[in-house]
Amino acid sequence: MLRVGLTGGIGSGKSTVARLLADLGAVVVDADAVAREVVEPGMPALTAIRKRFGNAVFGSDGALDRPALGRVVFADPGALADLEGITHPAIWRRTAELREAVPAETILVHDMPLIVEKAMGADYHLVVVVGVEAGERLDRLVRDRGMTPEDAQARIDAQADDSARRAAADVWLDNNGTPAQLEVEVRRLWAERLQPFNENLIHGIRARRPDALTLSEPKEEWPAEGARLVARIAKALGDRALAVDHIGSTSVPGLVAKDVIDIQVGVGSLEEADAPAFVEALQHSGFPRVDGPAADHGKDGTAWHKRFHGSADPCRVTHVHVREVDGPGYRWALTFRDWLQADSGARDEYAALKLDLLAKGLSTHDYADAKEPWFDSVHDRVMEFGDAHSPG
Question: Which of 55, 77, 195, 297 has CA 20 to 30 A from 247's CA?
Fold first, then answer.
């Protein structure tokens, strides 16, 4: 089951996107609807709210007066924390019930306003953010919802800004245009990413790049993509992973690279990485195991054994290298990254090698092999850098 977190600022059109995805076949769990459900008459959370806040936040019919409650909690952080302490456990219990009822091969969309504010991105395979310029959202709230400009601006200011949303977004749906344009983008997202991703998850298939070698100019989104993948893998593995890091060329600012995010997972032993629970945790979170032996090689030809996983996301090829933290391959990957980040001359030298090999028309497999002599030639320089900068 592909788990998609859908979010966006107030007035962005997030609910419209949720309806479009539901029409295409997704099951949508609406966080706002769940929040209303758990405080309906007769629900335990409603009784607890009355006990904490009194009758002043209830109407004459016994139902919760949401505007009255909002005026209390948004002016008092302590009161807001008390309310969240009452409602959040009930909301998450009900959300879990709804999620468990969804068929295993279905795409699940969690329509959740506060994914960014609550740093929940690692809970999903993908986070989709509906983006609209703040000024346009302000106009929509005043025009379509009847808010005063002051109230609308206060609501916007209380939420995450667009820079935080972009950092959290695997997919940014621009909704500054017309409804028809938005629908086209949603349908494209469904056909090109969500459905193939879900199929790959179901069948344990990793996404792969074409064998023809291409290199990309440095992309400003690579660090944020790496951070999101690190967070997802760390969340999935918990204590099974001793460390999770973004490595490889996309972790080095300013370096040309294949458009692949490399992630290193450090474990105590490869036997731990072979445990069914470890393999299943990564596969469930979108990183199926690649069967067969995997190893890199040191300067003397010694095999540096590892385990290898890929991403099921068809639009974000990712390589996950699982290595023992006490092994030479683990240390090399981190030290080589840090050396390139710190030494502009080394970075330029490596970039020149990459471009020279690209000009030869190599396949991606031959490209990897062709770099090995250069790695051997800089091995001592990398290790000297690591020794000089090691803690203690």
Answer: 195
User: Can you tell me whether residue 254 is helix, strand or coil?
Assistant: coil
Quote the pLDDT of residue 323: 97
Judging by DSSP bridges, how do beta strands 243-247 and 261-267 pair with one another? antiparallel
Q: Any residues with CB less than 8 A from the CB of 28 and at least 6 apart, and which?
A: 6, 18, 19, 21, 22, 109, 110, 111
One-character DSSP codes across 25-62: T-EEEEHHHHHHHTTSTT-HHHHHHHHHH-GGGB-TTS
* The model's pTM: 0.91
Tell me the pairing of strands 318-324 and 303-310.
antiparallel
Cα 198 from Cα 74, distance rounded (Å): 39
* 3 state DSSP class of 378: helix
Report the alpha-carbon distance of residue 4 to residue 124 in Å, rounded: 6
Q: What is the pLDDT of residue 392?
A: 58
Q: Which residues of the chain have pLDDT under 70?
A: 392
User: Euclidean distance between the first and final Cα of the chain, in Å?
Assistant: 46
Report the distance separating Cα 64 and Cα 42, nearest Å: 11
